[in-house]
């Protein structure tokens, strides 16, 4: 963007905070949940109604063990979650995130991931591994994880079938020992 002040971007990143979802986030949530660009690489389908979005916030987001809204100032511009594993995966958590496409490319998702990493291993002392699966075509999201210090472990070929096709996934991980050492 012509005449865009780079320092302003840095200010924005320092204003990023994470907090629990609230029903009052519905309008902000609709901005990214109804955007095809955001849902394109996600397993979930683009939202089409406020009722559907309200159901998600009430029934999934609020009760979730660790799901937060990414805020820029007061505005909710995305979400980030860690879903705990169980059984043989009890020492594992899966990271997921989505960001309003208007805010892509500013380092915001990377900042949010770094905030999560900085807190989750202390909040969940049992956690040894944080992992993330990224669609092989989603290069932006892969860069986010690399910049946040995750290791790219490899490509899982035809790992998932959704939205009509089989997809390769790139597996990323960060161990508590990587972070806390």
Automatic annotation (TrEMBL):
One function term, GO molecular function aspect = acyltransferase activity, transferring groups other than amino-acyl groups
PANTHER family named among the record's database cross-references: ACYL-COA N-ACYLTRANSFERASES (NAT) SUPERFAMILY PROTEIN (PTHR46067:SF27)
| Source organism of this protein record | Actinidia chinensis var. chinensis
- Superkingdom assignment: Eukaryota
One Pfam assignment: Acetyltransf_3
Protein's recorded name: Ribosomal-protein-alanine acetyltransferase
Which SUPFAM superfamilies would you find in this protein's record? Acyl-CoA N-acyltransferases (Nat)
Which PROSITE patterns does UniProt cross-reference here? GNAT (PS51186)
Positions in coiled-coil regions: none
Residue span, N-acetyltransferase domain: 16-176
For this UniProt record, the keywords arranged alphabetically read as follows: Transferase
């Amino acid at each position: 963007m012509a005449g865009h002040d780079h320092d302003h971007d840095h200010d924005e990143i320092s204003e990023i905070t994470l907090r629990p979802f609230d029903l009052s986030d519905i309008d902000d949530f609709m901005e990214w949940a109804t955007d095809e660009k955001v849902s394109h690489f996600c397993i979930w389908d683009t939202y089409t109604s406020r009722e559907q979005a309200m159901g998600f916030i009430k029934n999934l987001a609020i009760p979730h063990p660790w799901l937060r809204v990414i805020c820029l100032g007061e505005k909710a511009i995305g979400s980030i979650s860690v879903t705990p594993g169980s059984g043989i995966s009890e020492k594992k958590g899966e990271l997921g995130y989505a960001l309003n496409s208007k805010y892509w490319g500013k380092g915001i998702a990377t900042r949010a991931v770094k905030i999560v990493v900085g807190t989750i291993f202390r909040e969940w002392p049992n956690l040894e591994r944080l992992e993330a699966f990224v669609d092989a075509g989603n290069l932006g999201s892969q860069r986010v994880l690399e910049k946040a210090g995750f290791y790219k472990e490899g490509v899982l070929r035809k790992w998932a079938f959704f939205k009509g096709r089989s997809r390769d996934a790139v597996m990323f991980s960060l161990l508590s020992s990587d972070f806390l050492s």
